[in-house]
Amino acid sequence: MNSHTHANNAGRHMLIGMQLGNGYGSQVTAWRAPHVDVHHYADLDVHVRYAQKAERGKFQFLFFLDSPNQSQKHPGESPQMTLDPLITMSAIARETSRIGMATTASTSWNEPYNLARQLKTLDVMSSGRIGWNAVTGSDPLRAANFGQELKPSQERYERLHEFVQITQALWGSWDKDN
Questions:
Q1: Which of 25, 84, 97, 124 has its CA 20 to 30 A from that of 130?
Q2: Averaged pLDDT for residues 47-62
């Protein structure tokens, strides 16, 4: 490494995270391995144990996808429906002390006040270890689960922008100690 490269990287740190999704990992056929319990995707205690192991392994954060519909592409793949990430993060927050947690949460299938309140509660429970990946949602099947049709991209992104502003304003309006 030359001194120029070193100077450009000064103060930069790599964050190491782990995705917690369906309880099996990212390999879509892992659930069929002989030692894997096929019910792990619906076992909250398993998710807590994975989080505790990640924390002991010095991971900085866990990332949770929100898949509010079954998206198994074919029978050879694992079920892709995830447990509700906010509830999963609640359980993990109570059983860990350092690892951060971030989740996707759609601005199409939620309302600003409810999501702001849920994320603020998690923030308090975890002593500030929560992050939010705001997404619009782009799957017609997920829209159908909420009694909606998928709106055009521009409309979804306009709502996302407004949603984030409202959510941030709500967080700013609550007392620091709450």
A1: 25
A2: 94
d(CA 27, CA 40): 14
- For the record, the structure tokens of 84 come out as 């509700």
Neighbouring CB atoms inside 10 A of 25's CB total: 17
What are the tens digits of pLDDT across the range 75-112? 666 666 568 899 999 999 999 999 999 999 999 989 99
